[in-house]
Structure formats: structure tokens, C-alpha cells
């Protein structure tokens, strides 16, 4: 199997938190965090392990399971109390074929502290990096675009799908798309209570041969039909997720590729919420890899948020 796949990276960066907790600065517009937070005590109680220790263990175990499947994992430690969401690195940077890195403007003040020069320097040393485009200065103008949380990128068709929210400003999206040669596809999506979806990557997952989509949450029928037509036009099979499945993080998954197979990393909670027909469609093209990240999910994100894909060419060892 060809190791280089524009949609499915073969390497990821993960952050292992030493002092994990749900971020109070993001709870206001993250409905997933509020829902998941109700389960925080029960998650810790079931294991008789403090939540921060459990999060540390689950990140360690997930990284090991990915490596056992042939995925290269670069793991970094975070020993700070000031960065509770650091376990979600895909929001502050992304990497792109051709040797490009983007650094993003973050909505919450304490999330801006997550940006780390040691991670960027590692990427420059281990991979071929041509340039780093830093959009973080847009924070001064209250323009935010939280990476591949705010955008779900179709690397094959060159489309950037983004739900309009506090975390995805149209001007910042246009600037990214013009620099990185993506077509912006901006739309509105809300839950049954009328609350805007805070990050696009909880609503959809784009793989090489499939898309998982919470289409009913897209508020405009016309826009929803346009999005579906784009996916079907690219030859992908669309798997429709219910709003309940979205709240179980079924849309928050990431396709990866080893030397021998394509994998879909998803949380154990999401895996259990998929029905047998949905799993069957996925298993036609990927091996499902359920990972227990129940402690992390109490902060309102899941496994896709935890994996910053590396779409760069490796330097010779």
C-alpha cells in the first residue's frame, strides 16, 4: 500500500497532560463540554482513579495502540496547570503537503499558551518544512480560526468545510484558504436546542472513501444538499449520523494510514454508538481502532481533537 495518502497521515503528534481538567474558559460555547462534564465524576469513580491521572494513562495507552498499528506517534509532555486543553493540539497548528505549517489564532486566552516552539522545531528537524505561516496575530482583531477543529479539510478535493462560530471567523478562513489553496465551504450548524456547533470536527469526518456527517444539524437545506453533493461527487459514501451519535463523538474520528492498511481512530464511546450497518460501511475501507479516551471526553473533545496529523515528507533518518 502506498504510504503517502493526502487524506490519511501516517504520523501524528499527541500531548500527554499531567494536570488535565475541563477548561472553564471554553465551557460557554462548547455544548459538548457541558454535556460531557456531567459524566466527569462518574468516569473517575468507575476506575477509582483521579481524572487527571486517568487522562494521562489514556493518552499513553492510545499512543501505544496507534504505534502497534504502524502509526508514527510523536508524544510531548505538558506539565503546566495553565493549559488544560493542551491535549487537543490540532487546534493551534496544522501541517500540509509541500512542506507547509499553519499556526492559528485561538478564541480562549489560555488556549493561546498551548503554542510550542519545540513542536515546530521537531517538525523542521524530522520532516521537510518549507515555511510556517502564523495567523496568531489575528487574535488582536478578534478573528479566530482553531485549526482542524474549526475546519475539516478535504485534502483530495481541496475544500475546507467550516461551521461558522466563535472559533471560525469567515475572514480568517478566507485568508487560510487563499494561502493554502482550499475552497472555503462555510455553513451554520446547530443542535436541537439552537446552540451553534463549536467545532466542525465534531460534526463530520472525511476519509479517503467515506464521509461521516451529522447532516440534520446543518441549518440550511440548500447548503446541506450542496455539501452532500460535493462528497458524493468525489466518489465517497456518505454515512449519516444522528444528533445523538454526534453527541457521542461519532463524527470526531481521524483516518490514518500505516504501511499496510488504513485505520480509523475513534473513541470507544463513538464506536459503541455506531450501528452495525455504519460499521460495515466503514470496514470496507478502514480497520476500526476504538480507543478509550473517556476522561479526555469530559473536556468536550475526543480522539480526533487529540491527534494533530503530520502531512509532511519525512527527512532521511
UniProtKB/TrEMBL annotation:
NCBIfam families: citrull_CtlX
Protein name: Amidinotransferase
Amino acid at each position: 500500500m502506498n504510504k503517502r495518502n493526502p487524506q490519511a497521515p501516517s504520523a501524528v503528534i499527541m500531548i500527554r497532560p499531567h494536570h488535565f481538567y475541563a477548561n472553564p474558559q471554553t465551557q460557554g460555547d462548547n455544548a459538548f463540554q457541558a454535556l460531557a462534564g456531567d459524566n466527569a465524576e462518574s468516569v473517575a469513580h468507575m476506575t477509582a482513579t483521579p481524572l487527571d491521572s486517568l487522562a494521562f494513562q489514556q493518552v499513553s495507552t492510545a499512543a501505544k495502540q496507534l504505534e502497534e498499528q504502524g502509526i508514527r506517534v510523536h508524544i510531548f509532555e505538558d506539565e503546566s496547570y495553565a493549559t488544560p486543553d493542551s491535549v487537543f493540539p490540532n487546534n493551534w497548528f496544522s501541517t500540509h503537503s509541500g512542506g507547509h505549517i499553519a499556526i492559528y489564532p485561538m478564541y480562549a486566552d489560555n488556549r493561546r499558551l498551548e503554542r510550542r516552539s519545540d513542536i515546530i522545531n521537531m517538525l523542521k528537524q524530522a520532516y521537510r518544512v518549507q515555511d510556517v505561516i502564523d495567523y496568531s496575530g489575528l487574535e488582536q482583531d478578534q478573528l479566530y480560526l482553531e485549526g482542524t477543529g474549526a475546519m475539516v479539510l478535504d485534502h483530495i478535493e481541496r475544500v475546507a468545510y467550516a461551521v461558522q462560530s466563535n472559533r471560525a471567523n469567515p475572514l480568517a478562513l478566507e485568508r487560510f484558504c487563499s494561502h493554502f489553496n482550499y475552497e472555503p465551504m462555510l455553513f451554520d450548524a446547530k443542535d436541537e436546542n439552537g446552540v451553534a456547533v463549536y467545532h466542525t470536527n465534531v460534526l463530520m469526518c472525511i476519509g479517503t472513501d467515506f464521509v461521516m456527517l451529522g447532516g440534520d444539524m446543518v441549518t440550511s437545506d440548500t447548503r446541506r444538499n450542496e455539501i452532500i453533493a460535493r462528497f458524493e461527487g468525489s466518489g465517497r459514501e456518505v454515512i449519516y449520523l444522528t444528533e445523538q451519535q454526534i453527541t457521542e463523538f461519532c463524527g470526531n474520528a481521524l483516518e490514518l494510514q500505516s504501511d499496510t492498511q488504513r485505520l480509523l481512530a475513534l473513541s470507544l464511546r463513538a464506536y459503541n454508538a455506531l450501528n452495525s450497518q455504519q460499521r460495515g460501511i466503514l470496514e470496507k475501507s478502514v480497520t476500526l481502532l476504538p480507543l478509550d479516551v473517556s476522561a479526555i471526553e469530559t473536556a468536550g473533545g475526543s480522539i480526533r481533537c487529540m491527534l494533530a496529523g503530520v502531512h509532511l515528507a519525512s527527512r532521511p533518518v
